[in-house]
Amino acid sequence: MATNFTGQIEEGGEFPPEANRYHLYVSLGCPFAHRVTMVRALKGLEDVIGLSIANCTLGKDGWSFATDAECPGAIPDSVNNFKFLREMYSLSDPNFAGRITVPVLFDTVKNRIVNNESGDIIKILNSSFNKFCKNPSLNLYPANLEMRIDQLNDMINTGINSGVYVAGYATTQDSYRAGVRLVHQTLSELDYILRKTPGGFLLGETLTESDVRLFPTLIRFDPIYVNVFKCNLSRVQDFPHLSAWLKRVFEVEGIRDTVNMRHIKNFYFLSDRASSWNPNRIVPLYNGPLLPSD
């Protein structure tokens, strides 16, 4: 029984690179799906790979699809007209035993999921469609930086991407304390890295996969994780170099359009799992240091 999908898109393989064959399913609220929409925009793949955007809240039945009228910014499933993401997983593997998650990269010819691991998908988008994309020269994972990118990615994943969830879902005071301290320590280390690295990005003048992996969590950090996950030993805006980096990435062409604070806040504050601690469905006005409050 499969618990995830790990297909690759490559010449001569089961899933060959073709324009208008593959489709992405994402949530604008989910930080792991956000990294995928970032790479799609950075590489200029909007006319090559289709996109469906899930409802901005996660319900009891999991991810669902909605119209723009029902949820501004949502895009329904145009491939199979499914209402729920779980239908796509069942179509791809009736015995699937893993979690029903976004993002999903889907093959519309074979009518099955190719990959549902965000780290895999961003690498696929970075390298597999260069014959079709608008920005083939952009390489977020250059060979001369692979080792440094991998090291940074491990640090970012442990201390930031997964770190905020470890703190937020802690069930004991000790595990929460350890989690939130790791997040704070990692933010401090990243601020130091940016202070001593000329060029404005984590590895210098070139935007890399590490920047893409960090941005979705940090754009959510001050308006979401400080409160919802109690990661409140520090904020991004308390770190001058991280703050400057966040603004610099936000201003890279195409990135601003991938940030939808309505979807982000609704995902965290109005999803079914938030009902126990937010029964009155109050959504804060604050959108972080880069965007005006509602």
Structural features, described:
By secondary structure, the chain is mainly alpha-helical. The chain folds into two domains: 22-127, 3-Layer(aba) Sandwich (Glutaredoxin), CATH 3.40.30; 143-252, Glutathione S-transferase Yfyf (Class Pi), Chain A, domain 2. Helix content is 40%, strand content 6%. It has helices at residues 31-43, 85-92, 118-127, 146-161, 163-168, 173-196, 209-228, 240-250, 261-270; strands spanning 22-26, 50-53, 104-107, 112-115. The protein has a four-stranded mixed beta sheet, with helices on both faces. A hairpin with a 4-residue loop joins strand 3 and strand 4 (112-115). Helix 4 runs antiparallel to helix 6. The protein is globular. The N and C termini lie far apart (45 Å). This is GST C-terminal domain-containing protein. GO terms for molecular function: glutathione transferase activity. Pfam families: GST_C_2, GST_N_2. InterPro entries: Glutathione-S-Trfase_C-like (IPR010987), Glutathione_S-Trfase (IPR040079), Glutathione_S-Trfase_N (IPR004045), GST_Omega-like_C (IPR047047), GST_Omega/GSH (IPR016639). Residues 142-267 form the GST C-terminal domain.
